[in-house]
Amino acid sequence: MKKFNIFSLLAVMVLAAMTSCSPDDMPQITKLVPPELNELATPAIDGTSTVYTFNWDAAKFYMDGNSQSTSVGSYEYQGIQYTLQGDLAGNEFANPVTFGSTVGKNYLAIAYEDIAKVMMQNFGMERSFDETSDADLEFRLLATYGSNESTSVLSNVIAVPFTLTTIPPVTGDKGKFYICDLAGWGDVALYAWPEGGSMPGWPGLLSTGTTSKNGKTYYEFTLSDEYYGAALNYIANNNNGGQQIDLMSDFTMGEEDVYVTVFINEFGELAYQIDEDPAPKLFVNSALGWSDYSMYVWAGSGDVEAGWPGVHYTTVITINGETWYEFDMPRAYSKTASTNWIINDNGGGSQCDLMQGYTFDHDTFVRIAADGSFTLSNGPVLNDENQFTVYASIDDSGWTSLSFYVWGDLGELCGGWPGVAASGPFTINGTSYYYHTFTANVPVNVIPNNSGAGSQSPDINGNSDIIIKIASDNSYEVVKTF
Predict the structure, then answer these.
(1) Of 35, 175, 320, 396, whose CA is between 20 and 30 Å from 206?
(2) How far apart are CA 412 and CA 390, in angstroms?
């Protein structure tokens, strides 16, 4: 459908008036021809095409009655900007929305998803998994002469039906969103727009709990289906408390978890960073006597990822004088529940069954005895009941080194202050830990300190393996005891 626009005639009359009162030596536009917007090659915008191309016959701006180029500028492509405007049919372009613009061309290619975003953001359309929504649109062009911004002309109008397609369901694993609050908010909400389906309005989703990862505490957000498979804009806020920060724009959630830290930067402004989400690692200490090691994992009726003999160890490290084989397990292994593990000599003919129905969601230390029996732990725990190890992270403390001073009924086990220097570091769940092993058959007092440089943590009382994190105020958090 095409409509004649009276604005074209008005523009000519205005231009004529402008010419009559301009100095004779200034080139003037004395005539113009509006662009002619052609019908779309496709009858409707409904997602059946990736890109929709709008094309038109060029507008013409004549200089001082000439029909050819002049030294000032051309009447055709050069200097003309075309802006594609749209509105709901029947609105008479009362509040036109821009879908795109170009300079010096007579076509504009726009992806379906970009058109869909405009419709959701400006016309209140919602997207869901189970139904489509429709609207009748009208489009027109605004042609503006580049050297005279006040001179513009409108094209004819074309009508095109629009369908907002459903979001394709996401199969398989779905990632979660995690936010670490280092801005002092005390409460965090996650808002995403444009909204649709069961996506809540401002301030958005509330946290379903917290989790520790890489030495940080994150608020965890469980997303409904509408958050997946569509490009959304995310905003973190302090649960409608007056502070907010824009996060990722046009971001599509998929299978991977997303970790974000919100903090105050050096300029006193809210800022954020996307944190790395390393896959858990596997550490194996073996008394089997093999010369090589691979780990095969299966679930259900097939391989989790790698076929037999599985994933080969990456490197060999020494902790407390013991040899540990370190495996960099791909993300698929931590994304699959109830897995079954078989260690083997890299396909050489020997194998040993390990964990059955196991969910590998954190760094795991496996100690295998000569008879094939094994134990699991979250750290390299020693077998000797008269020995224990303290593992301490100083990543958040501001300390540059770590020593342990030990006192109690057995005296100063590691000499006078500041005690013995810690060994390490090695990494568990992305956090670096220093450590030392003590021999004590009764509880003792261990004081972590920054090697006598003036800072120390409260005493650790006991004689069991323990993992701690030392904070900036010199206090410590117990991560795990054994």
Answers:
(1) 396
(2) 16
- Around 338, how many Cα atoms within 13 Å sit in the side-chain half-sphere? 4
Helices (H), 178-275: none
367 within 8 A of 375, measured Cβ to Cβ = yes
Phi, psi of 47 (to 5 degrees): 85, 0
Beta strands in 169-208 (DSSP E): 177-182, 189-193, 205-206
Per-residue pLDDT tens digits for 119-169: 988 888 887 767 889 999 999 999 887 655 557 889 999 999 999 988 766
**pLDDT, tens only, 272-307:** 998 877 678 899 999 999 999 999 999 987 899 899
Give the 3-state secondary structure of residue 439: strand
Query: Which tokens sit at 252?
Result: 């599509």
Q: Is a pLDDT exceeding 60 seen at residue 27? A: no
Tokens of 445: 């007092």
| Of the candidates 417, 301, 429, the residue with the CA atom closest to the CA atom of residue 363 | 429
Q: What is the 3-state secondary structure (H, E, C) of 279-291?
A: CCEEEEEECCCCC
Other CB atoms within a 10 A radius of the CB of residue 168 amount to 10
Element (H, E) at 344: strand 340-344
CB 110, CB 118: distance < 8 Å: no
Answer yes or no: are the C-beta atoms of 161 and 172 closer than 8 Å.
no
Calpha distance 418→405 (Å, rounded): 5
